[in-house]
Amino acid sequence: MDPCTRNLYLFCGKRSDRIKAIIWEGDGFLLLYKRLESGGRFQWPRKESEVRLITPQQLRWLLEGLSIEQPKAVKNVDNLLFV
Known about the structure:
10% of the residues lie in helices and 23% in strands. With 83 residues, it is mostly beta strands. The chain has one domain (1-83). The chain has a three-stranded antiparallel β-sheet with strand order 1-2-3, with no helix packed on it. The N and C termini lie far apart (44 Å).
């Protein structure tokens, strides 16, 4: 993968309580860092085969310390037509 694209790359350490994100801004990288308090842990893949693309909603859940799989969440609906 090319880090000099407008993709957001996320990294998490062994303890899974800190997350780092980098994104190329055209003239340099923007680095974001978040640490969960009170024993919180990020739901993070442990194998390369578990790496995946996530939606903006899943990113918000992840940064809040939630699982990116929320089976009871309302699904986004595309192309609504109101008559």
